[in-house]
Amino acid sequence: MKKLAVAVWLLSQAMLMSCSQVSTDTAAISAANETNAEAQGLSLKLELADNHYQNKAQSRSVLTITNNGTETLPAKGWKLYFNGGALTAADSTVATIQHFNGDLHYLAPGPKFEEIAPGASGTIEVLGRTVRNVSNFPSGFYIVYDAEPGKGIPVSLEIEPGNHFDEATQQLAAKIYEDNATIKDLPTTALTKVFPTPISYQEKGKPFTLDTKVTVVADADFRREAEHLSEILATAVGQKPAIQSSATGKAIYIRKKPGMGAEEYTLSVNPERIEITASSPAGAFYGIQSLKTMLPATAYAGKAATVEVAGVEVKDAPRFGYRGFMMDMARNFQPKSEVLKVLDVMALYKMNKLHFHFSEDEGWRLEIRSLPELTAVGGTRAHATDGRSSIVPSYGSGPDASNKAGTGFYSREDFIEILKYARDRHIEVIPEIETPGHARAAIKAMDARYMKLMDEGKKEEAERYLLRDLNDKSVYRSVQGWSDNIMDVSLPSTYNFLETVVDEIMSMYKEAEAPLHTIHFGGDEVPEGVWEKSPSVQRLISQNPEVKNTDDLWYYYFGKVNQMLQERGLYLSGWEEIGLRKEVKNGKVNWVPNQQFANENFHVNVWKNSPGSGAEDLAYRMANAGYKVILTGVTHFYLDLAYNPSFSEPGLYWGGYVDIDKPFYFIPYDYLRNLKEDDRGNPLDRSIIKSKEALTEKGKANIVGIEAPLWSETNRTTEDFEYKLLPKLLGVAERAWAKDPDWAKEKDAAKSNKLYSQAWSEFINVVGKRELPRLDYYAGGYQYRIPTAGAKVIDGKVVANVQFPGFTIRYTTDGTEPTKTSPAYSGPIAATGAVKLRVFNTAGRGGQTITIQNQSSM
């Protein structure tokens, strides 16, 4: 594998760009990094030397420190900070690596570290976990000198992975080839022109021609929806159609028809008129979205003066009332413009719940005016020593507050704009206040507030919103490495804080005239050891007979939060843990549905279903017990997981790999049947789930919908975010809206597989030939992932195929990167040596290049 000479914190971004963009933008980035390095004299290179060191699941790398400046790097008196990587120094006498907090670590010189003169280099061997993809490498390096402890200086990093992944790349390309071989290339005329798949669809008669003479006729209740359609058509035909109460010529009619379902609609197209009927504005809106998916991609590029809409008769309604996407803008920030783009694509595909994950350990992103520290401190990541101005760097955000991924928030005005935008698209925004865990940003912000007011002599006011017991000596470590990220739920000030935040959030919804029915209060991943040495907790236990130990604090807390929300006319949502109770049997800890809250209308996102975890059936157990369950399983819906095991694919993989097929083949009422892989993508041992609990009829009624989260640890840019979002989201939209497919209901395995293969081909053709070309232009265009080619050597020749029919494979045999003008693949390639293959979409943008070594005739 060729050397990757690019700053590691920009690796995943660079991979998304076209060939021409990579050569231009990477050069500019490298130049900027080199300038920074020269300014402070250092640059780093991390070379992966052994990925199975000592035949164990560990790696050995060589970190080279080069002094490009004019001053000697001393043998002591500095620390080199970085995020991630989980590294240790091979020789502690040369250097030591210490965990600081969260994913922040630092390397310090040991007694045998030798100073590095200008122009010289020094090396340090480091050990870590086996590297599986680009996201495993550390990032965000900066140096801090003891003489200036408050100043962090960025240091560039170059990584050199060597050829450790070449064989795996060839094997994966062959597997992708075999998977793609099952996809049939279907004629465009045979594809359903409404997406997601409607309940009833029939093409009949001649098309309707859209032009500048067409008007929109809408009933008064659907005026807002008509405005939305008119704005879209203005792009298509170059002029905004008039909205009228009646018409004599060709027109698009949006009519109210009593008695239809809440989100049901019909769509009829003939040469003289297009008619959408619905009982509700939401139904009318979804009819309009279906009409929008019938328009060709060129309509959104503004290149068509007239547009033909096929003659159809459509009757449609969603399968689930909850069709959700969770956007994490807390761990790494995304700008308001990206939130609006998310709402646009959600609306197009009839998704109706945006889970707004704005608070985390690593960031608080929503302005609460009565508590300005939440964003001033909790929304800022930077290297600092005072604890008053920022929280620590995470996920490669570096030492400077100017980093756009680490620092940022939505003002009150921003959020109200987002709410209005969502409201007009029939999307309910569900805010999440992560509690009591994953709360470090809020805790540290309130600490800063406390210190400020104590300096002013205002002790009572300083303590009003504290989120931790200042005398707590409890020792714990969260899954993400934090030792100070859990709110103390015994403190009255914690509830003062929550009530203040909730009331201000409610006021924003009221001002936006946006619906608010629930607030999500998190509830996941609180580690052992929390609260055990809190004096405040001990007082509560001594005074409250219902709280016998720290485990009981869980039920105490969510009981109080539930009461607070009910008093405000809201219900409680959270991760599955809010509805679980800890039981110890024979020394073994089990988590079971908590009957105390089973009938309290708790809505739970159940994410734990990994094979081998013991929680494979947890969603069904909770639904059977009476909880309202939103299926959010990591195995099929965590969009932040890498697409596949390729080294070049950014993203996490702790819960497996997720491509567009995972949500597509998910069977909501029998998902144990479609648990096919372990967390490494290998075929699953079915005995693991043999005795798991099935969904009952009562439980089935408690499955309210589906949600797909996109966590942001590895998303440092909007391009990173969209790469993971799309095209996976289309699989989620299809499964949340469309009716139960025939293959999912068929009990005979052979027949089911045949039906599935047919449905998969139809779906993937629609995505490749209709939806992704549309997303090149819709809402300004999306940087969706373009798949790598499937390829292998057969009979001495390189053969290749692609996941999305309609996309083009281009190749080179001279060692250069394929571009959009390189030869198009049309059949087996006889060339020997390195054959480079790259997939391009219809707009000419390319994905990642793969190299196949054809040694057959050499």
TrEMBL record:
Keywords: Glycosidase, Hydrolase, Signal. Residues 40-212 form the Chitobiase/beta-hexosaminidases N-terminal domain. It catalyses: Hydrolysis of terminal non-reducing N-acetyl-D-hexosamine residues in N-acetyl-beta-D-hexosaminides. The keyword Chaperone does not apply. GO terms for biological process: carbohydrate metabolic process; glycosaminoglycan metabolic process. Residues 1-23 form the signal peptide. It is an enzyme of class 3 (hydrolase). The active site is at residue 525. One of its GO terms (molecular function) is polysaccharide binding. The keyword Transmembrane helix does not apply. Its EC number is 3.2.1.52. GO terms for cellular component: membrane. InterPro entries: Beta_hexosaminidase_sua/sub (IPR025705), CBM2/CBM3_carb-bd_dom_sf (IPR008965), CBM2_carb-bd_dom_sf (IPR012291), CHB/HEX_N_dom (IPR004866), CHB_C_dom (IPR004867), GH (IPR017853), Glyco_hydro_20_cat (IPR015883), Hex-like_dom2 (IPR029018). Belongs to the glycosyl hydrolase 20 family. This is beta-N-acetylhexosaminidase. It comes from Pontibacter korlensis. The lineage of its organism: Bacteria, Pseudomonadati, Bacteroidota, Cytophagia, Cytophagales.
